[in-house]
Amino acid sequence: MNTTPAITVRDLTKAFGDNAVLRGVDLDVPSGHIVALLGSNGAGKTTVVRILSTLLKADGGTATVQGFDVKVDPRTVRESISLTGQFAAVDNALTGRENLVLIAQLRHVPQARAIADDLLARFSLTDAADRKAANYSGGMRRRLDIAMSLIGDPAVIFLDEPTTGLDPQARIEVWHTVKHLAGGGTTVLLTTQYLEEAEQLADRIAILHEGRIVADGTLTELKALFPPRTRELVEKQPSLEEIFLAIVGDHDSTSTPDPTMREARR
């Protein structure tokens, strides 16, 4: 797998008024990898994605996508990427096929219907192709949304909390879709607050806390930062949840569990 960075971020800063959201973010995303940007609500994950996708200007630092500076050459960056936000951006009045054909036409991609049919097959939506998107399940809508983002073959896809609000079965459907993307060589930067999601999907995990990346590595590398907690019949490795809480400084086991942590345990 190619380890050349598709995304490079150095000393990225951003403030909204007196609120400094990013305080010097450094991040590399290798080509063809899935990197999970993990953090609590308000940690700045979406701000990073919005800067990388040219929707927001940074106050300082540099960021490149596919070698193009997001500030100097935003148009070329936009030609190299696709962004899927926290809520599926499909037109409920159109069928699944019509949504895909519309996006292909807007992007001036030839053979729009053939591309739509191919994506419907790839994302297991062929049987629902002529049903209105309003009648799709949450998982189907999200799969359609991601399929729409692939039109034009972007090299990099940003998935900003793609499973927010989905039930467990729909979430697993999206996980399969994301794994399929990376298997085809697409670079994926995934933001999430679900620890299990990062464990399931990511080649590398970066933890964003108080405006900085405080840990970055494979799950194995992050586990190696901490000694085994207990010894039973076999040595027990720390979970990603334990690593996350230790890194961000929450050592109070008697405090009210964070909803993110409860979700990750399900």
Topology summary:
Elements (H helix, E strand, L loop, with lengths): L4 E12 L2 E12 L3 E5 L6 H8 L7 E6 L2 E2 L4 H7 E4 L11 H11 L5 H11 L15 H12 L6 E5 L7 H16 L3 E6 L2 H7 L2 E6 L2 E6 L1 H5 L6 E2 L3 E2 L3 H9 L10 H7 L1
Parallel strand pairs: 3-8, 3-9, 6-7, 7-8
Antiparallel strand pairs: 1-2, 1-4, 4-5, 9-10, 11-12
Distance between the termini: 32 Å
Total number of beta strands: 12
* General form: globular
Instruction: Count the DSSP helices.
Output: 10
Question: What CATH architecture label applies?
Answer: 3-Layer(aba) Sandwich
Strand order of the largest sheet: 6-7-8-3-9-10
Short overview:
With 266 residues, this protein is an alpha/beta fold. The protein has helices at 45-52, 74-80, 96-106, 112-122, 138-149, 168-183, 195-201, 219-223, 240-248, 259-265, and strands spanning 5-16, 19-30, 34-38, 60-65, 68-69, 81-84, 156-160, 187-192, 204-209, 212-217, 230-231, 235-236. The chain has a single domain, classed as Rossmann fold.
